[in-house]
Design goal:
Elements lengths: L1 H54 L3 E2 L3 E4 L7 E6 L5 E6 L3 E6 L5 E6 L6 E6 L7 E5 L3 E15 L7 E10 L7 E2 L7 E8 L3 E8 L4 E10 L6 E9 L8 E6 L5 E6 L3 E6 L7 E7 L7 E6 L5 E6 L4 E8 L5 E9 L6 E6 L5 E6 L3 E6 L4 E7 L5 E6 L5 E6 L3 E8 L7 H5 L14 E2 L10 E2 L2 H32 L2 H14 L4 H18 L1 H24 L2 H4 L11 H23 L4 H8 L9 H25 L3 H9 L4 H29 L3 H6 L17 H8 L8 H35 L3
Antiparallel strand pairs: 1-30, 2-30, 3-4, 4-5, 5-6, 7-8, 8-9, 9-10, 9-11, 12-13, 13-14, 14-15, 16-17, 17-18, 18-19, 20-21, 21-22, 22-23, 24-25, 25-26, 26-27, 28-29, 29-30, 31-32
Helix pairs in contact: 1-15, 3-10, 3-12, 4-10, 5-10, 6-8, 10-12, 11-12, 12-15, 14-15
Length: about 750
């Protein structure tokens, strides 16, 4: 009796310790699972925290309003220095007032030096900061508001400096006015673009002549003397109507003349000695006229505002015959009244519009956004300006009231259409999906379409899974169910070892060996891909047709080994006859034939190469998990099925695959996640071009590869930088959604077949 009680006590002690271990293990697993969830959530929220500012709307600071003594109707130009601390107001009479942006206090007043009466005004490229006054005697003077910045030691704080900004005027071509019209008629309308090497001026004289003047300077390398050369030609007259505005392109190659209320005539002035009239275009239908016009930064696009508040963008588009046509590209949300002023940003593709009802609208061309609106009152806006960094606005009403405000507008390039839809970019012949970023600044039209990157990611995963899933799943089924234990003990570890192979090695081999090899043997490679499945079926049929005396000599589960020489023979034969076949059917050059006969583009590093390389990278993952799932099917299920008279294939189809389906499905999903997130193979084995093309013979760029390539050169905090994080977030969401849907399907399969 005592012995029995001692044994019971011993067993009870072991059970208690086992229960304690189970509880500890349960808590450890719970903690681990929660830690994974928390880690994934933190990754998501971190990515989101970097991305969210891109999608926040711009905001306007507290406006400051003040009034000058004179009427605002004389104001022809508003701007500020780079720090948006000192504003500049220029009048038609040549007065230049420098004032504080916060309260309008007077800093300095200057006068444009010209021994003549100004009658017209024009601003050149905002980045150059040069403006021009046309005089009543046919001459012109160029002037530039400039700011000298000095730093002096602060007596009260020796470790700090005091910054002093001193405004003044500069004259790029000298203070002496330049004769534009030899007949000395007044310059009613002018347009000017200044460059260190050449300056171009277009002018409309009082007697209706349209002049083009080119002013160039040459420096003698020996004496150092600079000589100025000037040439003036008369342009062909516009077809009809009164000329209201002249616009000269920044690179001094195109001139646009607005006339007759709603027409623009385009002149090609690249050859200054022989300019030519190209075309006349109707900007608005009858009953609607032009209220204001300007050119965007870079000088390629026209922004036109109408008397009905409509705003549109136009630029030159090249047709198939290499001829350029001025084309309407996009329209923007309108303002309520007639557009009275349009002002471009200095470097970005944004612009400011004002109307006769005192409303301001800030726009961005590429993203087709109206960023914000602000009412300055009931008086018409007669002039407006934007600070060089785009962080402050200035607007003057007809009654002389000037409004200034700082604006937070860091990411105007981003919109749904800019990220996911086709965009018609400047100098493009049609709307396209384009990712073309820059690392340092925004001095060009950014192209941030994520559509080709997302398509590239899905394309890479599709072709990889197209290769990996049939081979891995069918191989796992055969290895777990049909293969002999000894052969399985060799095959399974060998395939799983492949999983440890670095993807950079696979990418290196795919890019430097496989891609050129397939390029040189494209016909043979495609023939081999077609013949291999057919060969498998033919070999299986022949195997069953052989006498049993021969087939019984091969041990059960070793049949697959006989396919190895068959596969090698078929592949070698296909590659061997590939070149003769290519010579007979495809004129000796299959890539050239695909391009010229079918219109399919062909690149050496293409989706076929990536599919093969990534397929081999994904196969070990899918094979290992799927093989374990099939092998783990309880033996009593298969034995019972066979005992009831089912064949091995019937048992496999009706019992084994159904029971193992959740595991097989999980294997495919994990392989899909592996393919979607792959970086090095797609980075090294594709052309890395962001194109929208489903062809197997073209390359692509994936989200992961794009992040890997460009993150190191993206300036922190820029639109480019944050959109790379957004790319990572999109990749995260794609994987998350795919895994979530897959897990739901897997649970349904498990519940459905758990009763077997």
């Amino acid at each position: 009796m005592e012995k029995i009680e001692a044994n019971i006590s011993k067993v009870g002690g072991l059970t208690g310790r086992r229960m304690t271990k189970d509880k500890i293990f349960k808590h450890v697993m719970t903690f681990g699972g929660l830690s994974v969830i928390v880690a994934i959530s933190l990754i998501f929220f971190y990515l989101a925290s970097v991305v969210v500012p891109v999608f926040m709307p711009p905001s306007l600071g507290k406006p400051a309003t003040f009034r000058f003594a004179e009427s605002g109707a004389d104001t022809v130009y508003l701007t500020s220095e780079e720090q948006a601390e000192i504003g500049v107001r220029m009048t038609l009479h040549g007065e230049v007032r420098f004032f504080g942006m916060q309260d309008g206090h007077e800093i300095a007043i200057d006068k444009v030096t010209a021994d003549g009466t100004p009658v017209s005004f024009a601003a050149g490229d905002p980045a150059k900061g040069v403006v021009a006054y046309g005089l009543a005697d046919g001459r012109l003077v160029l002037v530039k508001p400039a700011f000298e910045v000095r730093y002096t030691k602060d007596p009260a704080h020796p470790g700090k400096d005091i910054r002093t900004i001193t405004p003044h005027l500069e004259y790029p071509l000298g203070k002496a006015p330049i004769v534009i019209d030899p007949e000395r008629r007044a310059l009613k309308r002018i347009a000017v673009q200044y460059d260190d090497n050449e300056t171009s001026v277009a002018a409309l004289t009082a007697d209706g002549r349209l002049l083009l003047t080119s002013i160039g300077s040459k420096t003698n390398l020996i004496t150092g003397e600079t000589s100025v050369e000037q040439n003036t030609v008369v342009l062909p007259p516009v077809p009809h109507g009164e000329i209201t505005q002249l616009l000269l392109e920044v690179k001094q190659r195109e001139l646009y003349v607005l006339h007759d209320g709603r027409f623009v005539t385009h002149y090609d002035v690249m050859d200054k000695a022989n300019p030519r009239l190209v075309q006349t275009v109707e900007l608005f239908p009858a009953g609607e006229t032009v209220g204001a016009a300007t050119m965007l930064s870079g000088g390629y696009s026209l922004i036109i505002g109408s008397d009905k508040g409509n705003i549109a963008q136009w630029f030159l588009v090249r047709d198939q015959d290499n001829n350029y046509h001025l084309t309407h590209i996009r329209s923007f949300p309108p303002l309520d009244g007639k557009i009275t002023v349009l002002v471009p940003e200095y470097f970005r593709k944004g612009f400011l519009a004002g109307d006769e009802r005192g409303e301001l609208g800030l726009y961005y061309a590429t993203s087709q956004r109206q960023l914000l609106t602000y009412s300055t009152g009931s008086q018409p806006v007669v002039q407006a300006g934007i600070a060089p960094r785009g962080n402050a606005l200035l607007a003057e009403s007809a009654d002389g009231r000037l409004t200034t405000a700082h604006v937070h507008n860091e990411y105007p390039e981003v919109s749904f259409s800019a990220l996911w839809q086709k965009v018609w970019y400047e100098s493009y012949s049609e709307p396209e999906y384009v990712w073309q970023s820059t690392a340092a600044n925004s001095d060009f039209e950014p192209k941030f379409s994520l559509a080709p990157l997302t398509l590239g990611t899905l394309k890479a995963a599709f072709y990889a899974m197209l290769v990996a899933v049939p081979l891995a799943v069918l191989g796992a089924i055969f290895a777990a169910y049909f293969m002999s234990p000894k052969m399985r003990g060799i095959v399974k570890p060998s395939i799983e070892i492949m999983q440890a192979l670095p993807t950079v090695v696979l990418g290196f081999l795919a890019g430097l060996w496989l891609a050129p090899y397939i390029d040189n043997n494209l016909a043979g490679t495609l023939l081999a891909i077609f013949l291999l499945p057919v060969t498998f079926l033919l070999a299986a049929w022949l195997w069953h047709r052989l006498p049993q005396k021969l087939t019984q000599r091969v041990g059960p589960g070793w049949e697959a080994a006989l396919l190895i020489p068959v596969i090698l023979t078929v592949m070698a034969g296909a590659l061997e006859i590939g070149h003769p076949l290519e010579a007979v059917l495809f004129d000796g050059d299959l890539p050239h034939w695909l391009h010229h006969r079918l219109g399919w583009s062909y690149e050496q590093r293409n989706s076929l190469v990536v599919g093969i390389a990534m397929g081999f990278a994904v196969i070990p993952t899918i094979f290992s998990i799927a093989e374990d799932a099939v092998f783990s099917v309880p033996k009593h299920l298969t034995s019972g099925s066979l005992a009831l008279g089912a064949t091995p294939w019937q048992t496999l189809y009706h019992v084994v695959l159904l029971t193992a389906s959740p595991g097989i499905f999980s294997a495919i999903l994990i392989g899909l996640g592996r393919a979607i997130g792959e970086t090095m193979i797609v980075l090294m084995a594709t052309g890395n071009t962001a194109v929208m093309d489903l062809s197997i013979f073209t390359g692509f760029r994936t989200l992961s590869a794009n992040v890997g390539v460009e993150m190191g050169e993206a300036a922190v905090g820029t639109t480019h930088y944050r959109l790379l994080f957004f790319s990572a977030l999109v990749l995260f969401l794609i994987t998350f959604v795919a895994n979530t849907l897959g897990e739901l399907v897997r649970q349904r399969l498990r519940e459905k077949y758990s009763s077997l």
